[in-house]
Write a structure and sequence with these properties.
By secondary structure, the chain is mainly α. It has one domain. The protein contains four helices and no strands. Helix 1 packs antiparallel against helix 3 and helix 3 packs antiparallel against helix 4.
Length: about 100
């Protein structure tokens, strides 16, 4: 039962990622999307949303596997998902926003 918050947070983050992938980038801070052109908004949303979705899904998978197996090594799934997700988010930031801010 200790993993329920991890699963809930992962679900919320996954939902935000799905919204970004569908083109709704309003959940991203204004200063992180101010230089994104109108024609690049769908591409930017897909890339940043994919990174967010990877982070959320890795948290959900970790929570479920932790309830089943109860092994501390499973938390490396979340760590790997966070690293991959952050790389995707930064890639989108640099590619479409021309920098982090």
């Amino acid at each position: 039962m200790n993993n329920i918050p991890l699963i809930v947070i992962g679900a919320v983050i996954s939902l935000l990622g799905c919204l970004n992938i569908m083109g709704n980038i309003s959940s991203i801070h204004w200063y992180n999307r101010r230089k994104v052109t109108e024609e690049d908004i769908p591409k930017y949303g897909r890339l940043v949303g994919s990174g967010t979705l990877v982070i959320g899904i890795s948290m959900i998978v970790t929570g479920i596997l932790q309830m089943i197996f109860n092994n501390e090594i499973i938390y490396y799934i979340t760590a790997a998902g966070i690293v991959i997700g952050i790389v995707l988010i930064f890639w989108g930031q640099f590619k479409y926003n021309k920098g982090i801010f």
